Automatic annotation (TrEMBL):
It comes from Streptomyces californicus. Gene3D superfamilies: Periplasmic binding protein-like II. Pfam families: SBP_bac_3 (PF00497). InterPro entries: Ectoine_EhuB, Solute-binding_3/MltF_N, TAT_signal. Residues 54-284 form the Solute-binding protein family 3/N-terminal domain. SUPFAM superfamilies: Periplasmic binding protein-like II (SSF53850). This is Ectoine/hydroxyectoine ABC transporter substrate-binding protein EhuB. The keyword Signal applies. NCBIfam families: ectoine_ehuB (TIGR02995). Keywords: Signal.
Length: 300
């Protein structure tokens, strides 16, 4: 199994990427070029992929979003994208490993066709690439000791119980906790997810605050813990959904639109969505609301 990632690199756990108002592809995106969206004969990007029989996808080896296990590409994004591209007549994903910071530059350079890494939709990224509609949202949850001795369910109950909360260094969850009125002396900073799990098990904190997706994955290797039902925190009255999606090169809007049509069929079918992605810790709480749109997100 792939090593659990440094989640703060994902973008939706740092200060700029996870703020509730979502991002929109700014204005009119770059016009389609012959190279990306069509040729002199009118052949589009999807036609090319169908003809060659595969789509080149980039992943960052970050579980549970996209990672290699043995020789098999697994995770939320590859699983979902494989299903979508098969429906579009492209049967194979050809993976390329990339450092997180190199995913979009590699896409722009034509090294692959799609980023399949659970990338958060942010205004900055929307300026450099085009995103699908949201594939998932990332509600927050609490990891607690088995049995949930303090009986906490969300930040309001955590404040009422006077418990000590752990958050990752540089992550937005610290702001969520402060925004809920939890005093700073009750908020402890940790460097990585396993540190949070260890602190919960050791009694140094009462709960560890992170996305439900990440905590459920972490709980698989920390059996003395459990994870509360996810909840959506608010900052200044705005819900913090933290959505992610597939990423395409500018000029490939037609390919993105075809992808979106198949994506909508899956996210509209709750049982199908859960069946596909439950092995990676995604459930009904991660299904994007129908009115959550990338065009509204990229606007910031």
């Amino acid at each position: 199994m792939a090593e659990f990632p440094n989640l703060s690199r994902r973008g939706f756990l740092n200060g700029t990427a996870a703020v509730g108002g979502l991002l929109v592809v700014p204005g009119l995106l770059t016009a389609c070029s012959k190279t990306d969206s069509g040729s002199a004969t009118g052949e589009g990007a999807l036609d090319k992929l169908r003809k060659q029989g595969f789509v080149r996808v980039a992943y960052a080896n970050e579980a549970p979003y996209g990672y290699l296990e043995g020789k098999e590409l697994k995770g939320e994004a590859p699983t979902l994208h494989r299903e979508i591209f098969k429906a579009l007549g492209v049967d194979e994903l050809k993976p390329t490993l990339s450092e997180w910071d190199g995913l979009i530059p590699g896409l722009q350079a034509g090294k692959y066709d799609v980023v399949s890494a659970g990338m958060a939709i942010t205004p900055e990224r929307c300026g450099n690439a085009i995103f699908s509609e949201p594939e998932f949202i990332s509600p927050t949850a609490l990891m607690v000791r088995k049995g949930n001795p303090k009986k906490v369910t969300d930040l309001a109950s955590a404040k009422k119980a006077g418990i000590t909360i752990g958050v990752m260094s540089g992550a937005v969850e610290g702001g969520y906790a402060k925004g809920a009125g939890i005093s700073e002396d009750r908020i402890k900073t940790l460097q990585k997810p396993q540190d949070g799990a260890d602190a919960v098990k050791g009694g140094r904190i009462d709960a560890f605050l992170l996305t439900g997706i990440s905590l459920r994955w972490l709980a698989k290797t920390n059996p003395d813990t459990e994870v509360t039902e996810p909840f959506v925190p608010q900052v200044d009255g705005k819900e913090q959904f933290s959505p992610g999606g597939a990423v395409f090169r500018k000029g490939n809007e037609d390919l993105r639109d075809s992808f979106n049509r198949e994506l909508k069929k899956i996210v509209s079918d709750r049982s199908r969505y859960v069946q596909l992605l439950e092995p990676y810790g995604f459930g009904e709480s991660e299904i994007p609301p129908q009115d959550l749109r990338t065009a509204d997100l990229c606007a910031g």
